[in-house]
Amino acid sequence: MAAFWRRYDIALVGSAVFGFVLLVTVFASLVAPYDPMARDIKNRFAGPSAAHAFGTDQLGRDVFSRVIHGGRPILSASFSAVVCALAIGASIGIAGGYLRGWLDTALMRLMDVMLSFPSILLAILIVATLGVGLLNVTVAIGFAMVPVFARLARSIVITLVFEEYVLAARSLGASDRHIVWKHILPNMMPPIIVQASAMLAVAIGTASALNFIGLGVEPGSPDWGMMVAEGQRLIFDAPHVPLFPGLVITITVLSVNYMGDGLRDHLDPKLRRQGD
Amino acid sequence: MNRRRTLSAILLLPMLLFMLGPATAQEPQYGGTLVFGAESMGDSFDIGFWHGFGGVHVIDSIGEGLVRADFENGGALPGLAESWEISDDGLVYTFHIREGMSFHDGEPVNAAAIVRSMKRPINPEDPSYIDGMYMYGNQGTSNWESLEAVDEHTVVLTLMQPNATQLLVFSRPDGVIISPKALDEYGTEVGLNMSAAGPFKIERFVPGQEAVLAANEDYWAGRPYVDRIVIRAYPDEASILAALEAGEIDMTLYAPFTSVPRLQSSESIRVEVGAPLVNLFAGANVAMAPLDNVLIRRAINYALDRDVLIEAGLNGFAERPASLIGPLDLGFDEGGREISVYDPERARELIAESGMETPIPLEVAYENNRFWPQLAELIAADLEAVGFDVTLDRLDTGSFWGKVGDGQTQLSINQRSTFVPDPHGKAILMARAGAEGSQTQHQALEVADEIDALITAGISTAVADERAEIYKQFQALMLEQLPYIYIGYLTPPIFVNARVQNVETFGTAGGRINLREVWLSE
């Protein structure tokens, strides 16, 4: 246990912090001391105190309660985007890597085109086309991440199809479907999961950025990115307003990154062997 | 006796020093560079086009028209014209031009040069003519019958119809007189090489960034106090505030209002309060449901808690509103303040009377800058409290006006600041011409013709009392129909470094900074 802790200490801290953030976000209504939309005009810009741990904002709303509620849009959009991108991207990668030929060429050139756009720019382009809203932000982030998963899945599948167990299954007359489901998919999952954890951190950052520039949630809603945007003009006068949501974004992204590092160390056989 | 004299001298000396001290300290000083923080800087200063407020500040500093506006008392002050006469029928204006003036390029300012510059927008043969110079439309050129230089120092303008605002519009930025030499030499590029006759002249211009202006030693009213003005654009309010506090800029209108309480306790920065020249309002698109129903517009009017909007949305920098006409404008009717009040119960009754099912979906559009997002959130909360289901539509400036122009907004919040102290500048918002591109789409109002007739009457009448009565009728009609729902009269903070003296707060509040008489104490 001590050895496990030594090996994964940062990852465990990251996982614990992220788990805590997730729990607080899921049970926000129970945890938050105030209604995140409740205004107290006479008590605007109050600094952190016992009554308001993170102070109040320009409309007298409790920043702590808003930060607690503010994780919901970003985390739900990020999770959904990564899951969708993983499903679509892995399917494209498997199809290209397993079937090869013109289909592989066509799919990978398409992925190359998508990869040539910076992901945030691509996401902005998609939201600008589809319209403002959290659903469209999710679609945009997911779409921008598809080629990452597709490229990775293809490269793994190309290696796996020449593995002895795959060749053996094929020589025994196993169908393509059987080989993909029973032999390729289970063996490609560890690196895909590691990639997904890394992309989750990117997705949280991107969702925050899109909400910051007003492409996601409705103005005034509790959301980390939106709160930083609304608070940026107050940076000199009421720094607690943008500071706390900004800090929470940073801590969340860091914890997801550390968690991803631990997953990689644990799931990568080469790294695990070195550690053993 | 000697001892008594000595004692008296000892007592009197500090008193004398005290009396002399402040007088010496208040003596205007020449020299120094004043840096003004602007919200934008255009790519040209062509007065035929809008280049943002940064451009207006430059044009106001380098240019001069036939007259200047007296923002404090209303009316016109002498400019390039030292005096003028208006015929009894209000159709003939005779301007007597000062002698001995010159443009920045050394060309003499005379009647011929003035006529040449004023005719630029209506003379397609002029080498500087550009099709579509829309800002010149404010000069009333379509109502000019003739404009002539009758001798070297006399200009005569004859109108087709009387226009009570004609004199004052010559004080607008688009009324600036440009040197004929510059018009010939630079043609359509004259905006990059402006030569006018104002108190400052352009020394250096970096498009999109800053303009450096040097004092005009030959200015007719005497050289301005400061040697140089730098008008520099900053990307947002936070960076303007940082620059102000760092002493990088000396004056601005564009720092966040929320910073005022802190800055007021600063020894190095002074906050002055501008006059209520700017009207903040929500424009209701009367051509689109549910705002085509006057009962719903009235419900919105009573739903808004102006005290909270002013306190929390504008940090207290506004007066409670009355109507479209401002408190310093001719014909202002104080009675409007009794209609622009908070009465949520009345708002609910009006919604019930309208027969509409609640919640009533309503989109509120606004620009994503300054205090607009904060105001929009407060307005949304007020409206939701009486039975509306509000969607906030936060847009950048270009998209906002694009959507307004297409008639696609429902309730859109914005402002009106006029460049001259006259009610027509606000009333013209309700003119039939241009209605289809406006926030209110008021061509759909049944009383659109009646409103239009009052606007026309307002500028066709030269007698002040008669004009005032017309604008009172106009206000009554506007308050009955409520195409605009009033939020407040902005009294904007003017942020200045403590060394900046003699700031004129009236014109500045309307976006027309006057740096001619500003001086620096160190």
Structural write-up:
The complex is a heterodimer of chains A (276) and B (522). By secondary structure, chain A is mostly helical. Helix content of chain A is 76%, strand content 0%. Chain A has helices at 2-26, 28-31, 63-99, 101-116, 119-130, 134-160, 164-171, 176-212, 224-231, 240-267, 269-275. Chain A is elongated, with a radius of gyration of 22 Å. Chain A starts with a helix and ends with a helix. The model of chain A has no long low-confidence stretch (mean pLDDT 89). Chain B has 16 helices and 21 strands. Chain B has helices spanning 2-25, 52-62, 111-118, 166-169, 180-186, 237-245, 260-264, 294-303, 306-313, 344-354, 372-386, 397-405, 424-427, 448-460, 464-481, 505-509; strands at 33-38, 67-69, 76-78, 81-86, 92-97, 144-151, 154-159, 200-206, 210-215, 228-233, 251-252, 269-273, 278-284, 318-319, 360-367, 388-395, 411-417, 484-490, 493-497, 500-501, 519-520. In chain B, strand 15, helix 11 (372-386) and strand 16 (388-395) form a beta-alpha-beta unit. In chain B, helix 8 (294-303) runs antiparallel to helix 10. The two termini of chain B are 44 Å apart. The relative contact order of chain B is 0.15. Chains A and B meet through loops of A and helix 6, helix 9, helix 11 and strand 16 of B.
Give the strand content of chain A.
under 5%
| Low-confidence segments of chain A | none
- Gyration radius of chain A, to the nearest Å? 22 Å
- Sheet bearing the most strands of chain B, described? 7 strands, mixed
The largest sheet of chain A, given as strand count, sense and whether it forms a barrel, is: none
In short:
Chain A contains eleven helices and no strands. With 276 residues, chain A is mainly alpha-helical. By secondary structure, chain B is an alpha+beta fold.
